[in-house]
Amino acid sequence: MSAPAPETPLKKTPLHSLHRELGAKMVDFGGWDMPVQYRGILEEHRAVRERVGLFDVSHMGEFEFRGKDAEACLQWLTPNDLRQLADGRCHYSAFLTEAGTFVDDLLVYRRAADSYLVVVNAGNTPKDFRWVETHRRGETSLENKSDAYALIAVQGPRSAGLLARVAESDPSDLPYYGFRDSRVLGAPALVSRTGYTGEDGFELYLAPEDAEKVFRGLLIAGRPDEIEPCGLGARDTLRLEAKMALYGNDIDETVTPWEADLGWIVKMKKGDFVGRGALERQKASGPPRKLVGFEMIDRGIARHGHPAATPAGPGLVTSGTHSPTLGKSIGLALLPAAASAVGTEFTVDIRGQHKRARVVETPFYKRKKEAVA
Amino acid sequence: MNPEDLHYTQSHEWVRIDGETGTIGITDHAQKELGEIVYLELPEVGHVYNVEEEFGTVESVKAVSELYTPVSGEVVEVNKGAVTEPGIINDDPFGDGWLIKLKLSSDEEVAKLMTADQYAQYVKSEEKAK
């Protein structure tokens, strides 16, 4: 037997002891001790779809780019076009390898032409920072500020109403993917109309020392809305219904934006960026496989890593769950492009049993838009 | 807590012996660990199992768990209600949330299983090892 790997203690967010107090079940998520659920995934999922839920996502990483070349630097590092981004707006983008595959997916916040905040996945933070250090250009100061930010997501149709009661300035007028500096329950906060649930919602970037006060305050202020603290379990079912990719499951360093159906974050007209050459070539030849949504025809739940068999060759299930909203077994799979059309039937090997599935339109769930300004 | 009249396994199943029939389910501890159960797969009536053989799977939103027979025998009844509404395993794991009934092939196997007390101790020691 080989010696066990030295144990690295799990990292904790500023809300760790509060999660324990609230009775959360904790799991190791990318080296972080995070709540997977409090009262139950289905109830938490429903709270976000129908009312409002509160998530601790302080494990996410934050990098600050400042200086006169900050925009040019990020134009080179990411495929989306920063020239289309106004002050007080953010957009979805990525860091890509030279092969055009995902180092990570991320959000870029433009505070000013010379000041940006980039938010990356928790487990990728050290890798991303090294990658940025080796690929950056020009006169830009770069800082890993991950420990300087706690992050609380307030998600659901009643999130705007709740924040209107406790934020210094009513965030209802923020556009989707807009943000501003404000105060929430007295604490300075960057309030962003973003999220990972497919619902209207906000993310609050706070000083770590304010996180517990704000989380507790929101739980109290949200009582009339029957607010629920929500864990990573519900976060996963919510994002999957909305067909939002999860790094490490659906996208990684083997998958390109063309394959992941995320071509819209790639702006070929903007000029050069890391990975562009490879993406140009793959665009010309067509991506060999595509990330599609599917529903199970036979009973069963396909899970990440289950092999798929299609008329055009093998594929792979990248995410799968029981959809609480639809009451169906759904998932995402990377299938050969020739077998990726809606309606295509294929089989998934679920622990040795070959069960039928069908490619369907995505997202699986789309919220009604009237709530959004 | 764990009913006194049941026999328990280390893989968190229970069996209730009633003459020649053994009714099998998962424990309250098991359903709590799994969380809300959304999918259940059970065998057909007539299937014959050895002891500690996989007879089905139970899945929560997050996790999959295999089900193992505490005793050997032939499946004589399957809880179809639990297949269509697996949530009843969470609500009533020792009652309406039973899984299958076996016609026992041996009356000696039960003696090797844990009593309610022994199972409670076992769960405690398992928790500590975490």
Question: Can you give a write-up of this model?
Answer:
The complex is a heterodimer of chains A (373) and B (130). Chain A is of the alpha+beta class. Among the domains of chain A are: 16-58 and 149-241, Gyrase A, domain 2; 61-147, Alpha-Beta Plaits (2-Layer Sandwich). Helix content of chain A is 21%, strand content 33%. Chain A contains eight helices and 19 strands. In chain A, β1 (25-29) and β2 (32-37) form a beta hairpin. In chain A, α2 (41-50) crosses α7. The longest helix of chain A is centred in the middle third of the chain and has 14 residues, at 208-221. The N and C termini of chain A lie far apart (60 Å). Chain B has 130 residues and is an alpha+beta fold. Chain B has a single domain (7-106), classed as RNA polymerase II/Efflux pump adaptor protein, barrel-sandwich hybrid domain (OB fold (Dihydrolipoamide Acetyltransferase, E2P), Beta Barrel), CATH 2.40.50. Helix content of chain B is 24%, strand content 34%. Chain B is built from four helices and nine strands. In chain B, strands 1-2-3-9-8-5 form a six-stranded antiparallel sheet. In chain B, strands 4-6-7 form a three-stranded antiparallel sheet. In chain B, β1 and β2 form a beta hairpin. The A-B interface holds A 25, 36-37, 40-42, 233, 236-237, 299-301, 303, 321-322, 324, 329, 351 and B 35-36, 38-39, 41, 57, 59-62, 64.
